[in-house]
Amino acid sequence: MLATSGPTEGSAPAGGIDVKPGSLFVSLDCVGGATLTLKLPPVTELAIPCAADKVTSTFNEVVLKNARVISLRVEAPAEVTWAFKVQQ
């Protein structure tokens, strides 16, 4: 496992992660009735809608061609609670 964060409410940085070429797997759980954005610059941004009354679980794969450092950040309204795990 490369990183975990949460449960957290609202926006928060999650720090930098050294990743290798290949598949990067991001699982995220959220609840709160709004959309959060998981930013993985400079690679991608993922907009994830979170249900108001139950936990929304997502699993995403990002394929990287080169090794790099990714600075993760979650942007979410204060009413959204989230947690994520990054694996490679």
What can you see in these coordinates?
The protein starts with a strand and ends with a strand. The protein has a four-stranded antiparallel beta sheet, with no helix packed on it. A hairpin with a 3-residue loop joins strand 4 and strand 5 (44-49). The protein contains no helices and eight strands. The protein is 0% helix and 69% strand. 23% of the residues are buried. With 88 residues, it is an all-beta fold. It has one domain: Jelly Rolls (Sandwich), CATH 2.60.120.
Write a short abstract of this structure.
By secondary structure, the chain is mostly beta strands. Helices cover 0% and strands 69% of the residues. The strands form two sheets. The protein has a four-stranded antiparallel β-sheet with strand order 1-8-3-6, with no helix packed on it. A four-stranded antiparallel β-sheet has the order 2-7-4-5, with no helix packed on it.
Which key phrases capture this entry?
Jelly Rolls, 88 residues, four-stranded antiparallel beta sheet, mainly beta
**CATH architecture classification:** Sandwich
CATH superfamily: Galactose-binding domain-like
Which topology does CATH recognise?
A: Jelly Rolls
State the strand order across the main sheet: 1-8-3-6
Number of beta strands? 8
Give the C-level CATH assignment.
Mainly Beta
Give the CA-CA distance, first to last residue.
Answer: 7 Å
* Fraction in beta strands: over 45%
Order of helices and strands: EEEEEEEE
Tally of structural domains:
1
The outline comes out as elongated
Region (Disordered): 1-20
